[in-house]
Amino acid sequence: MTKSLTVIVPCYNEEAVLQASYLRLKRVLNTLSNPSEIIFVDDGSADSTGALLAEIATSDRQVKVISFSRNFGHQKALTAGINHCTTDLAVIMDADLQDTPELIPEMLTQLEANHAQVVYGVRNTRKGESRFKIWSAKWFYRFLNLFSEVELPVDTGDFRLIDSNIIREFNKMHEQGKYVRGLVAWSGFKQVPLHYVREPRLAGKTKYSLSQMMKLAITSMLYFSKKPLMLATTLGFLSVVIALFFGLYAVLGHIFGFTHADSGWTSLVVLIVFFGGVQLFTIGILGAYIGNLFDEIKSRPEYIIENKINF
C-alpha cells in the first residue's frame, strides 16, 4: 500500500522565498504516487509570511497552515508540525530551499530499500555560507558527540524523512527544550544517511544568528548529557589536588627556605583567580541544569497556536 506523506516546513519571515518554495515542493509532490500534503508552520512572522500562507492554503486544500501567537523558535515550529502530522511519513525541511525538495523521491527510495525508519541528509558541501559558519557547524556536531550519551549523526541538519514509528515516539516526548534532530537519533530505529550538496539560500537572511546557534548548542548539550556535571566534578577534584600540591610546596619552601611570603603574591593571585573561575564555571553548569528543571516544572505549553487553516 502506498504510504501517505506530509512535508513540514517551519517559516519565520520567509516572504522572499515562500512562493518559490511552495511551487517547487508542489512540483515534486505531484510526481509522487504518495498521497501528500504540506504543513507550513508560521513561527510568529513579522512580515507578510502569514498572509502569503493564507492565500496559498485558500487555493490549495493540500496545504495546511499553523500560525503561532508569537515567535517560539525553530525547534518549536518543527515540533508543532510533527505533533499535527497524521500521515505515514513526514519530511522535515526549511523554507529557504537550501535543502532541495527534489531529493524527496530519493529519500523515499532509500527508506524502502533499506527498510529504515529515518533517512537524514548529510551535507557534503555547504554553498553560500561563510567559512566561520561552515567551521563552527562542523565542530559543533563533533563537540556535541563528545558530551552526548547517544551518538548523533555529524554534518546534518533537520532535513530528514521520518516514518510513523518516529512520529509516534516523538509525540510522546513533552520536554520543553527539544532538539529535534537529536531526539530523532535518540529514539533509535534504523537510520540511514543521504549525502547531498546544500544550496545557498534562494533569498533573504538566515534566521540562525550566532547567539541563537550558541543557545541551540547549549540546549542540546544539557538535554542530551550529564557529562558537563561530571566535568564540573573533575575540575573541582583537580582544584583540590592543585591546592594540596601548592600547600605542600609552600610548607616545604618555608622549612627549607626556597620560598618567601613576600615574593609569593603573584602565585597567590593566580591561584585565587583559578579557583574562583572553577567555582563560577561549576556554579554556571549547575545553574543551567537547574534552569532547565525550572522550565520543565512550570509545564507551560511548548507553543501557542493562534490559527489553523485546512485542518
The helix-and-strand class reads alpha/beta
What share of the residues lie within helices?
40-55%
Strand content range: 15-25%
Radius of gyration: 25 Å
Average pLDDT across residues? Answer: 81
What is the distance, rounded to the nearest whole angstrom, between the alpha carbons of the first and last residues? Answer: 24 Å
- Count of individual beta strands: 8
Oligomer: single chain
What would the principal axes of the Cα set say about the shape?
elongated
The main β sheet shows up as: 8 strands, mixed
Physical arrangement of strands within the biggest beta sheet: 7-5-6-4-1-2-3-8
**H/E series:** EHEHEHEHEHEHHEHHHE
Spans with pLDDT under 50 lasting ≥5 residues? Answer: none
* Number of DSSP helical runs: 10
What does this protein look like?
With 311 residues, the protein is an alpha/beta fold. The protein is built from ten helices and eight strands. 50% of the residues lie in helices and 17% in strands. The protein has an eight-stranded mixed beta sheet, sandwiched between helices. Strand 2, helix 2 (49-59) and strand 3 form a beta-alpha-beta unit. 28% of the residues are buried. The mean pLDDT is 81.
Element layout with pairings:
Blueprint lengths: L4 E7 L6 H12 L6 E7 L6 H11 L3 E6 L5 H10 L5 E4 L11 H11 L3 E9 L4 H17 L8 E8 H7 L9 H7 L4 E8 L11 H15 L2 H30 L8 H34 L6 E5 L2
Helix pairs in contact: 9-10
Keywords, separated by commas or semicolons:
alpha/beta; single chain; 311 residues
Summarize the structure.
The protein is of the alpha/beta class and 311 residues long. Helix content is 50%, strand content 17%.
